[in-house]
Write a structure and sequence with these properties.
Radius of gyration: 13 Å
Largest sheet: 7 strands, mixed
Distance between the termini: 39 Å
Strand content: over 45%
Mean pLDDT: 95
Number of helices: 0
Order of helices and strands: EEEEEEEEEEE
Structural class: mainly beta
């Protein structure tokens, strides 16, 4: 099990950028695939991006592809989500998730551990 803590959320104008970070505590961070999901008020949680343990494979949701980029630094036990060209519809709580011994997944239930989330608000 890993504990995940997200940071980097905030208020930004449309067209701006933010970088989210998620730091993991616990052992064997490099055996986990990591993902980002988001949940807007009144909506279901949505897949945003995922990355395999080696960074060899990345996956993106349709609504963020080409604007958001996921990366990880195993030496720092950290996964990042670089968000560019932000839109008001990107407003949500963003969650980091870890999948043990996985390659990454777009499916929420495939993840074993979750962070508490960080709020991202994009103003028009």
């Amino acid at each position: 099990q890993v504990q995940l803590v997200e940071s980097g959320g905030g208020l930004v104008q449309a067209g701006g950028s933010l970088r989210l970070s998620c730091v993991a505590s616990g052992r064997a961070f490099d055996s986990y695939a990591l993902g980002w999901f988001r949940q807007a008020p009144g909506k279901e949680r949505e897949f945003v991006a995922a990355i395999s343990w080696s960074s060899a494979s990345t996956y993106y949701g349709v609504s963020v592809k080409g604007r958001f980029y996921i990366s990880r630094d195993n030496a720092k036990n950290t996964v990042y989500l670089q968000m560019n060209s932000l839109k008001p519809e990107d407003t949500a709580v963003y969650y980091c998730a870890a999948q043990r011994f996985g390659m990454g997944s777009v499916i929420e239930i495939h993840y074993d551990d979750w962070g508490q989330g960080t709020q991202v608000t994009v103003s028009s």
